[in-house]
Predict the 3D structure of the following.
Amino acid sequence: MRDANPQTIYLKDYTVPEYLIHQVDLEFDLDAEQTRVTSRLTVQRNPQCQSKGKELTLMGEGLILHGVSLNGEPLSVGCYLQTEESLIIHEVPQTEPFELTIENSISPRTNTAFEGLYQSSTMLCTQCEAEGFRKITYFLDRPDVMSKFKTRLVADKEHYPVLLSNGNKVAGGELDNNRHWVSWEDPFAKPCYLFALVAGQLECIEDYFVTMSGREITLQIFVEAHDVDKCWHAMQSLKNAMRWDEEVYGREYDLDLYMIVAVGHFNMGAMENKGLNIFNTKFVLARPDTATDSDYEHIEGVIGHEYFHNWSGNRVTCRDWFQLSLKEGFTVFRDQEFTGDRTSKAVKRIEDVNMLRTRQFAEDAGPLAHPIRPDSYIEINNFYTLTVYEKGAEVVRMLHTLLGADGFRKGSDLYFQRHDGQAVTCDDFVKAMEDANARDLSQFRRWYAQAGTPVLDVRQQYDADSKQLRLTITQSCPDTPGQKNKPPLHIPVKTGLLRPDGAVAMIEQNGLDPVEETILELIEAEQTFTFSGLAEQPVVSLLRGFSAPVIVKIQRSLEELAFLLSYDNDTFNRWEAAQQLSGQIISGLIEDIQGGRSLTLNPVIVDAYGKLLQQSWDDLSYFSLLLQLPDQTYLASQMEVIDVEAIHRAREFVRKNLAEQLREQFFRLYQQYHRDETGRFDADAIGRRRIKNTALHYLMALENDEAYDLAAQQFSRAGTMTDQMAALSAIINSHSPVKQDLLNDFYLQWQDEALVIDKWFALQATSTMPDTFAKVQELLHHPSFDLKNPNRVRSLVGAFSQANMLHFHSGDGSGYRFLTDQIIALNSLNPQVAARMVSALTQWRRHDASRQQLMRTELQRIVDTDRISKDVFEVASKSLA
Ligand code: B3K
Ligand code: ZN
């Protein structure tokens, strides 16, 4: 809990560790009430450390210390000092390695913060990243101290028949009093944040994978007994990921065993502990009737992500936590590409960019903006952000774009070869890319240090006489906290040109064959690019594939956008044209609403949608994305002052009018693709479900019996969760008379499936209906709600505050007060989850004066809370600053 002035840690203060720990022998006498930990460390002064001093300071928090021995001799209490956050041994040998033995105990059952060793249902498990190992025992808890771990687990056989830790199982046996033990040994040196143990009554499914060099790896997924029928998709995903990493990066798995454990109480998605990944059940469990198509996709993505960390994160790890994007940005980029290869590249890219633009751009423009390699933090857990992860992945993607797939692969090969077994920096990564390709990336490095989303202003000038187009691009980056007047970045802008008849115009290059697409490399604050040999003025398709995380400002008429929507051969830009087109129309309607004018729908959009609906599509998922109106959050980001009611009204107006004018086409589309399916997960079936449910969403805007019946029938006959959820969501966001009945039916049907009940909570929390806030308050007292379960908190409190713009931002401030009450209650239970919830209040500057005041009042109430955790304090106080 907070001391008066929580300490800020700075990147510039980094120094190498004074001591190294080569070997760690751990013994856990496991018990939910009190677990005893014995840790035997082989320690040595770090020859690279210049500082003198005989003290050794180990980190530790909330530990009950029983004793310390040095080289087998118990130390008297005068030889060491225990503080709230450390154990200081006054004098340790300076020239020789020495052995330090520490005995302490911890209480997993009362650990509601879920960091260190904790209890989830009947099992015990750990979470150590970033600084959780210090809640297990005293240690040099920093990622540049890498040690070999041996772990012996002792526990009651009935309560904890399965005992797991990192590496390979080396021995085990029976003990008195119905107890047993198992020993594990991990042959790879690792930082302690990758340590893990699990104990519990778990069942497992097993499979194997033969690596590219012919080694057979045993694969195991451990879950509670009633979930054993929901693991096969995760297993298949793991095998797909292992193969993909061999094929695309030449990376082979290194241990003989790979284990995944699913736990119901988890602060985030999953954790890449060496050889023993621990996952939120949400990213493991799936059966067609319990998980949606998007759940299936996320499971494969997260399984891939954690698996890919084995190289990008574990074999090569971070020197310090400021370098987090080194492993996270790179690994997100890897998992994005994996999912794109497994599903639809076009759809995956659009989904990723949509998330980046709606959420990361907001973070980058707000009070908590930070570079992908932050300069300082109070609590590192607050820096597992969209910026570090998603913008970090975009930065890696730009390297991929600039160097090409082969150049990038050469760079990653060199990086892994050069730094295997080391803890390194973002700069080491860029250096490997540079060296392998003989490229100068010095200006590119600024992406790691500069916060804020760059803006590109684009001007075009076509000269018919010279048949030339001049494209002038100016780049600028807004000021962010602590950063002003930033120098220009190195930005790759993929560009294509379209002729007025819609065909691709070839781009001439000096002395080379003409190309369909080129990469403009921006390095100056302003640059002009000239394209020649253009008989007519082309339409520019800019920033193809969203080749850089920037905002492009270019004047486009609705007609030009409709043209791009019809003809652009870049799948991302085609979707972007649809978004801009409907976005501009919705913005106009918002102005009409604010000006008290009556609303009419511009026929350009009806015409454009009509054309899309006439075409035949191979990729039905892509087709449904083209038909989707821009996100409310995206629309909000385009406004000077966010007006939640006007956004909602304008967007609904467009949806309803499109549904009215294109009713027949949507109805036909629904009928064409609706099947009573039991759930195949190939691209065709997923696409069919997606387009059919998009059509249903439009039809439901008509609020007539025909649509109500369609949805109710789909709900009751659904063989997949995708169809059941889509129908229920359509119904509860309508005035259908059966909605309460169907909600009750759904609850009764699924009350034993926690992940489905999470959906039930989230659906109600995100409803646009007027009684939503009252419902949310009621749900807080529902017997299935549990403030101690992060998934449940996210599905009710998180969904309401982060995904229900209309009701959370209700003008009377009731949503803000509600959220603050929950944050304060959570602060003492689980500071990490509590701090995440504050994010809904951080964007207060974007709202009107009255809401600003209401949000600030609540942020202040949070900051003034007694015993505020440093997690929550950091986010709330920086938001107010
Ligand atoms: N590395 C973990 C995240 C740990 C978060 C600690 N607060 C999961 C991942 O990114 O793969
Ligand atoms: Zn990760």
User: Anything to note?
Assistant: Residues 386-419 form the longest helix (34 residues). Residues 455-548 form a domain with the Immunoglobulin-like fold (CATH 2.60.40.1840). The chain is about 40% helix and 20% strand. The pocket of zinc ion (ligand 2) is lined by residues 305, 309, 328, 331 (CB under 6 Å).
